[in-house]
Amino acid sequence: MPVPFTACASLGGDTTPTARKQLDALSAYLGQRREHLLQLWREAVRRDAQLATSSGLSRGALDDHIPRIIDDFARRLRLQDSHEPLPPDSQQQQDAAEHGMHRWQQGYDIREAMREWGHLEAVILRELDRYAVSHPQVDPEVVSAARESLVELCLEGTSESAGRYVRLQQAEAASRVRDLESSLRALQTLEDERSKLLRETAHDLRGSVGVLASTTALLTKPQISGPARDHFHNLLQQRISSMGALLSDLVELARLEAGQNPLKIERFDAAERLRGYCEMLRPAAAERGLFLKCKGPRSLPVEGDQLKLQRIVQNLLLNALKATQHGGVVVRWAAGKEKANRQWQLSIGDTGPGFTLQSAAPLRRALKRATDVAREADAEAEARSNRPAERQGDSDVLAAASGPGSAMLPSGEGIGLSIVKRLCEVLGATLELETAPGHGTTIRILFPVQYPGTPAQLAP
Known about the structure:
This protein is an alpha+beta fold. It has twelve helices and seven strands.
């Protein structure tokens, strides 16, 4: 006959020596049967049609903390036959919480995580029943108390696991809210800049319309002589041409923002194209008494969209020429210094008066922010490679040759710079802006040498 003893809930009270030996034997048995219990649990989980996420996990990922939780139960039986209470922050609670975190990371929903706990409890309960049948000498109160202890362990485990799961969900939700708020602020900033840009453009158009109206009125007066009439006629044509170009820029910007200007990647010689663009605009520079120089290697084979590159260069060159009273503009190009970097650089610098960011237009401030981001990325890459920073093209910045009075932003420059910024985003290029009063303005652009999906390598 088994030796009777008084069992307390979860065997938390005093037990007889025989009961303690039986608890130790049961604990050792569960330790020996751990792999078998794990196999039974895996089979139960695999058969459960409502546990779809587990089917994509490897055996190690599926087991996760479950082996340690089974060990925790065996250890709990050994500790509960002693006079010392279990510590409130037990290893079992930590293992259960970490299991909940793992299941959250694996994409489980909370219902799936709880069903896994249910299968574990059912597997161990059946094993306790089999143990009682195969060991009839064990006091029924020992098995009953072990079952109560298992229920308590699984209750604590599911609570800890679900608690960690919920906290992680709340943290993720809070992070998404912060990201959404940040995106909304960025969108509001973009909208503010766009509104100001459109107001400036409308102001330019209104001014041109005013000139058209006054010039047309003058041309109707019979007393206007032939030379004066020719002058006003030329002024009228210039304004009409300027308004047409500005409206075309607005249409192009709208298409870029709507994503209606896809890339057309092809191989070409960037050096040859840039020299051609400079030749096209050299008469405009000469008309203003300015120089337009080109510097770079004779050949620079790259991949890219030639029309978008041409639009970028023309916008930047026209803006540079408009902002410069004396001196001129220098266009430089070069291959990247790092072969692994696979980039090539274009810089356009003028001898204009430069400007401070506080007095600059919104688009110039946006270019400055893009510059800061690009330089932070360079600094991180240099820190990872443990080599000193090497700034390409610092000598590109020209001394100012224009007086402070020429620091006015050219008409329509905001639209042109916005188009440049959008085109660079489409091409995967980064912009850097360097300017200051008395030092002119230089804009550098780093273009990819090759784009994804083009297997053939370019000649070095």
